[in-house]
């Protein structure tokens, strides 16, 4: 066990879906997984392991912000042998063509945080997802009849009070949306040679000021969850016979 996870060795599958909200983790587990069991609940940051279409998969919350996801991703990788981490979360739309509930798959994550520079000797690391997971996600989207937007996002440190120059800068550079975790997840995955991906649903829009409710964010966004699960399924080997 670790200071933040009370699961036992072997409790996690090699692939873990990571929503920010513990109740969204519970919703995913109860809605989509079979033979599911709770494996961790420290600080009510819930984690579950089960099967999706006969293949093992886990789901565990990561909390809010890059420091929080960094702790959980580090411990999952280094203490529980997790090899693939897929963030499934909400984001604020920046691109004017995006609508509420549109799907985004991050092909890179810019950031205004110093965390990535601290990991990279003070330089700007290009935080990006794993190509195998990205390709599998693109293929799965086609099979599901979904049309997510693929592109750059921004992982920000501040939910309130961002620099007023940030929004026009994101629009200028074609950034699709803003969230608070992906850059750290991609950097940690790169450091420890594992795979990471980030699939998002537009929960609010920075230009139009439209937004979804907290209950909708917790208990809907099903297309995002199904896309992430199909990606996990496509990249997970068959279970060994008992």
From TrEMBL:
Its EC number is 2.4.2.1. It catalyses: a purine 2'-deoxy-D-ribonucleoside + phosphate = a purine nucleobase + 2-deoxy-alpha-D-ribose 1-phosphate; a purine D-ribonucleoside + phosphate = a purine nucleobase + alpha-D-ribose 1-phosphate. The active site is at residue 204. InterPro entries: DeoD-type, Nucleoside_phosphorylase_d, Nucleoside_phosphorylase_sf. It holds the Pfam family PNP_UDP_1. Keywords: Glycosyltransferase, Transferase. The record marks 217 as: Important for catalytic activity. A purine D-ribonucleoside binds at residues 4, 179-181, 203-204. Coiled coil: none annotated. Phosphate binds at residues 20, 24, 43, 87-90. Catalyzes the reversible phosphorolytic breakdown of the N-glycosidic bond in the beta-(deoxy)ribonucleoside molecules, with the formation of the corresponding free purine bases and pentose-1-phosphate. This is Purine nucleoside phosphorylase DeoD-type. It comes from Pseudovibrio japonicus.
């Amino acid at each position: 066990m670790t200071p933040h996870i009370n699961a036992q060795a072997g409790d996690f599958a090699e692939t873990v879906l990571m929503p920010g909200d513990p109740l969204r983790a519970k919703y995913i587990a109860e809605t989509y997984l079979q033979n599911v069991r709770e494996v961790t609940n420290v600080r009510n940051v819930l984690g579950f392991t089960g099967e999706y279409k006969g293949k093992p998969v886990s789901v565990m919350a990561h909390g809010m912000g890059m420091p929080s996801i960094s702790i959980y991703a580090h411990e999952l990788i280094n203490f529980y042998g997790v090899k693939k981490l897929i963030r499934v979360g909400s984001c604020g739309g920046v691109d004017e063509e995006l609508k509420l509930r549109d799907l985004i798959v991050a092909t890179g994550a810019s950031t205004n945080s110093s965390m990535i520079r601290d990991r990279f000797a003070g330089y700007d690391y290009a935080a990006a997802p794993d190509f195998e997971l990205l390709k599998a996600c693109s293929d799965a989207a086609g099979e599901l009849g979904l049309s997510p937007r693929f592109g750059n996002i921004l992982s920000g440190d501040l939910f309130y009070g961002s620099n007023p120059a940030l929004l026009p800068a994101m629009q200028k550079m074609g950034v699709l949306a803003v969230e608070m975790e992906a850059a750290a997840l991609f950097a940690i995955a790169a450091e420890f040679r594992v795979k990471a991906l980030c699939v998002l649903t537009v929960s609010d829009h920075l230009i139009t000021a439209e937004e979804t409710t907290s209950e909708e964010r917790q208990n809907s966004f099903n297309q995002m969850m199904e896309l992430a699960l199909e990606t996990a399924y496509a990249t997970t080997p068959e279970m060994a016979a008992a």
